[in-house]
Structures are given as structure tokens and as C-alpha cells.
Design a protein that fits this description.
The chain is mostly helical. Helices cover about 80% and strands about 0% of the residues. The radius of gyration is 16 Å and the shape is elongated.
Length: about 70
Amino acid sequence: RWSEAMFGHDGAKLDAVLDHYGIDRSERDEQGHSSTLDARMLAEVYPLLRKDYTHMLTAHTRARRTVTTP
């Protein structure tokens, strides 16, 4: 769900997320999708995705704190 929150529904697909982070997915394109290969690629992209999602949440929280009501 993190990738959907960050990139929208279509951008949350594994291929799109791998492309966003510049992770080579040629093996996936050549050999097709398999649970083992997808899991390995997800393990590679997960730390980057988590870092950016945490940053997004922190920025959102800070922005909410700076909003003042009259």
C-alpha cells in the first residue's frame, strides 16, 4: 500500500516501482514473473520505498503542524 500512497494505483505495480528507483528488471522481463524473482526484486526495492514513504509521512506531519487556524 505504500507504493499506492506514493505513486497512485497504476504507479504501484512492481515494474513501475522498479523503474522509478532505477532497478534493473531485465531478468524479470526476459524470464517472466515468478514469485521467487519478484520477492528478490521487492527485497531490493523495499528499503528505498520505505525510506521515501517515511520521508513523505514526516513531511506531511510537519506540514499539518504548521497549519494554523484563526
